[in-house]
Recover the amino acids of this structure.
């Protein structure tokens, strides 16, 4: 995003023009930023075979999936519906990895029938697959029990986590695959959503490499994700060059040691799309109470729940008044429950109808939106090759009523 002559632009498009054309609340995605992040990650990997599988759950719009396909990405899916969407977006089944947790065996079977790769995350399912699909190669998701996560709600590798097969159960896994003659072709881990420390990640990687040595048929090692991006100016972000160099070195050593040509995989969500997203809302009211100045906007946790759900910090900018005096505001939504986007933020003076912009609104933002308070979900716009394209209509009353059945009430 750029400020030129008191006007804000995203990849050459003036944001005010987007608001005029598509209204608020509005999600805008900068395709150039997604491409840049993809390229940065790709360039950091100095290995012969690698694959980046975009974690679709971060932002599932079909046009975003198509953009990632164009960039050469695969897809990491966590539900059969994400697999369906990826197939519609044009991904080949072999470029889709299904990494579910707590889904039914029927859902795993549907994925098997679609021909996608599967990462199994519990022993019961592994046995069941072995009995029913003895020829099918599967990956297994390992829980290395590493506490890596910026937020306890999203750290998934620790001892109490519901994710993965415990590293301590590898002897049992070995016994099962030997007895049932299962081909384990991949090892996977995903330790948390906010890995702060490259060292921790590399430590977990060593555990995974050691685990992989137990399996003869390994074709890929999938390190999941956890790459961190900046939400605040002073935040730490994953140094992708440093990380890529270190993991590539270890990976190449592993391939050499085992004499195998293996594929290195990652499944970033946030890293690829977080910073590409902007959320635009309008200030409805400025309300001074005894202690606080509230800005009430035309949105709430129905559209962007990360601040309330994860205590996430999203930078906010008043794009309508770039030279206004800085004042302290608490930015709240219109939902009839406490829904505070941000406390005590310094913003250029906010007047009714000013447009506020939230940063880092690409990942887990629209994707987690709802119709609470019977509000419509926002429209989405993608800027690609200098052109703004509507990629989702704003909802309407028809959408709220779509699956409702109005019965005669006597
Ligand atoms: C959510 C998820 C990811 C993506 O995590 P980010 O922090 O958004 O990069 C990757 N792999 C799996 C299995 C996931 O569930």
């Amino acid at each position: 995003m750029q400020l030129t002559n008191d006007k804000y632009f995203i990849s050459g498009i003036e944001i005010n023009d987007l608001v005029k054309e598509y209204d608020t609340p509005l999600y805008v995605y900068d395709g150039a930023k997604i491409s840049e992040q993809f390229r940065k990650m790709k360039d950091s990997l100095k290995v012969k075979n690698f694959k980046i599988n975009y974690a679709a759950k971060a932002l599932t719009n079909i046009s975003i999936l198509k953009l990632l396909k164009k960039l050469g990405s695969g897809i990491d899916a966590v539900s059969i519906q994400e697999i369906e969407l990826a197939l519609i977006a044009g991904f080949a089944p072999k470029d889709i990895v299904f990494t579910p947790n707590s889904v039914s065996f029927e859902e795993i079977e549907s994925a098997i029938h679609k021909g996608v790769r599967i990462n199994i995350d519990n022993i019961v399912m592994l046995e069941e697959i072995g009995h029913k699909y003895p020829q099918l190669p599967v990956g297994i998701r390992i829980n290395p029990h590493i506490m890596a996560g910026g937020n306890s709600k999203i750290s998934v590798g620790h001892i109490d986590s519901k994710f993965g097969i415990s590293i301590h159960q590898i002897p049992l896994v070995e016994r099962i695959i030997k007895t049932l003659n299962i081909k384990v072709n991949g090892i996977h881990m995903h330790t948390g959503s906010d890995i702060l420390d490259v060292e921790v990640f590399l430590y977990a990687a060593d555990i995974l490499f050691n685990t992989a040595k137990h399996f003869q048929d390994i074709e890929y090692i999938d390190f999941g994700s956890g790459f961190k991006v900046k939400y605040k100016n002073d935040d730490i972000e994953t140094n992708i060059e440093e990380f890529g160099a270190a993991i590539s070195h270890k990976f190449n050593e592993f391939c050499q040691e085992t004499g195998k040509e293996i594929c290195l995989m990652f499944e970033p969500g946030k890293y690829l799309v977080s910073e590409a997203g902007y959320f635009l809302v309008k200030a409805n009211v400025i309300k001074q109470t005894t202690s606080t100045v509230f800005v009430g906007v035309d949105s709430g946790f129905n559209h962007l729940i990360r601040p309330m759900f994860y205590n996430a910090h999203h930078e906010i900018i008043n794009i309508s008044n770039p030279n206004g005096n800085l004042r302290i505001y608490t930015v709240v939504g219109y939902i009839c429950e406490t829904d505070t986007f941000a406390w005590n933020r310094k913003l250029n003076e906010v007047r009714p109808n000013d447009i506020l912009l939230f940063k880092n609104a690409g990942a887990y933002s629209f994707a987690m939106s709802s119709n609470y308070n019977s509000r419509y979900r926002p429209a989405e716009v993608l800027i690609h090759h200098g052109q703004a394209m509507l990629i989702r209509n704003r909802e309407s009353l028809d959408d709220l009523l779509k699956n409702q059945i109005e019965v005669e009430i006597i």
User: Anything to note?
Assistant: The mean pLDDT is 94.
